[in-house]
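Record Chromosome partitioning protein, 301 aa.
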Amino acid sequence: MLVAVLSLKGSPGATTFTVALAARWPAPSRVLVVETDPSGGDLGVRFSLSSAPGLVSLAAAARHGVDPELVWRHTQRLPGGLPVLAAPPDAEQARAALSALAPDPTDGPGVLRVAANQPGSVVVADCGRVDPGSPALPIVRSADVLVLLSHARAEDLAHLPRRLPAVGRWSPRPVLLLVGEGYSGAEVVRELGVTPLGRVPHDPYGAAALCGRPHTPRRWRHSPSRSALGRYAHEVAVDLAAHGRLPVPIPYQAGPAASSVPVAAWCPIPGVPPAAVSPYGLRPVPGAVPDRHEHGGGRAS
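=>
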């Protein structure tokens, strides 16, 4: 299973949540974090990892052939034991490696997809901020589940109506998670016509431990399950693990003048027919729908 974690604007803590999600994925899955952020990786610096092995060495090795274990041979381990394929902090190097690893329909599914296709394997990719020109977009498109993180402030949500249709076309199973204070889940439903899966809790200590920051209380350092962020990430991971086993929803086929967004892919809203979609991706909502997994607001990182 391949899970892509990304944002469209700002820095809502995608790297921190990616690590939390992978660390708390339900057993007995074999889970790996991959940094596929074109702006460069953070985990190597945060945890003082070696420059190799990592994303760059994998891109070089993949030119000579791909096998299911190739990705795992280029990983390092975080202090808690979680395997990670770290990207270089330099954006130019990261983009070059991602371009080399991007799945090509003429050459096969790509090295990350091959690893994720193995029974019991889960690859969680931190794709950073994604736009239509991002070298991480081919990886996003090949993912089984897309997790979109967004701050819940007005200035962050205002750009979503025009972009949600495109995101809905990137993945058969997109999921929206709110981060931080701002609009409630019910208000987001009313304005966007998309039901957030929930809200990432404000947990400074848990986020600090997952970021490898110094002066983190000892009890948090090697046990994400102790933190509110870790417990919430486990809830989401359980949901996504089940989500990934569901049949792929059939995209809504709109007319030529409509948005052609596969609205059935987003978390459904009871009582709203798929045809009730405007050219901007908005749709009328008969009533407020509360968040699933609603937690207190605040940034995760």
